[in-house]
């Protein structure tokens, strides 16, 4: 009788473990048109168990993690996050840089909006304005006051004080086994030395003849026209951002559209938020003459 009870108990433990694995099995973002179908929809848990609430505050809205209609941060489009301070980054460096005095500057402009999540120094759910009427709330759930369960997109062991890291689960070798929900490559830290340079001025032909000049510009933007509306930069066109002095800069959003860009099949988005496909290095050779 005792043996039967032990066997039953053992079976129960195994059964519960199997249920746990099934409940936490990662699911993928569908990657079809619209921000709600991308990884930038931070309401999606990617786990039927709903474990997202253990790592960050769930505000019940898609856009609020980045945008607010009122009281936004300056220098970014209705930005609902505090922009990180410059001066703490290690930029890319190379002896082949022909602009900016041969030195890549600290990140600026719209790239700081991207880095407010991707450098891992600010929790993903640290916003300026909460949704609804409770604007500019204070306390551990809002602003940059991060409580222990407000995780940042940081490499393991590099989270800011008082936070955990999304990569504790969402990494190669983490709890979630599906590669579609690994965030390793998205956690840049403030060491950008192995990333494509950003916030650098785009070379003119006289500065470096191995760069294609943009085909169109309007003062605030320059872009490489692909046959859409010639008087504007479309989502699927590589763009450069005005530096306020007549030149243009390469920024994160030059190649990446954070809302996703519809691919040529009319259904799916280009992967990794790219503005265009990089088959045969087509995206790279938009700028680089190779």
Short description:
With 290 residues, the protein is largely without helices or strands. The protein has helices at residues 2-24, 110-118, 252-255, 284-287, and strands at 200-201, 216-217, 221-223, 239-242, 248-250.
Which class of secondary structure composition applies to the elements? little secondary structure
Average the pLDDT over all residues and give the rounded result.
82
Q: Which strand order spans the largest sheet, edge to edge or round the barrel?
A: 1-5-4-3-2
Number of helices: 4
Estimate the global geometry from the Cα principal axes. globular
Largest sheet: 5 strands, antiparallel
Percent of residues in helical segments? 10-25%
Q: How many strand segments?
A: 5
Could you state the oligomeric state of the chains shown? single chain
How many separate domains?
A: 2
Strand content: under 5%
The rounded distance between the terminal residues' Cα atoms is 77 Å
How would you characterize the overall build of this protein?
The protein folds into 2 domains: 160 residues, no CATH class; 89 residues, no CATH class. 14% of the residues lie in helices and 5% in strands. The protein is built from 4 helices and 5 strands, in the order H-H-E-E-E-E-E-H-H. A 5-stranded antiparallel beta sheet has the order 1-5-4-3-2. A hairpin with a 5-residue loop joins strand 4 and strand 5. About 11% of the residues have low confidence.
What topology does this entry show?
Blueprint lengths: L1 H23 L85 H9 L81 E2 L14 E2 L3 E3 L15 E4 L5 E3 L1 H4 L28 H4 L3
Antiparallel strand pairs: 1-5, 2-3, 3-4, 4-5
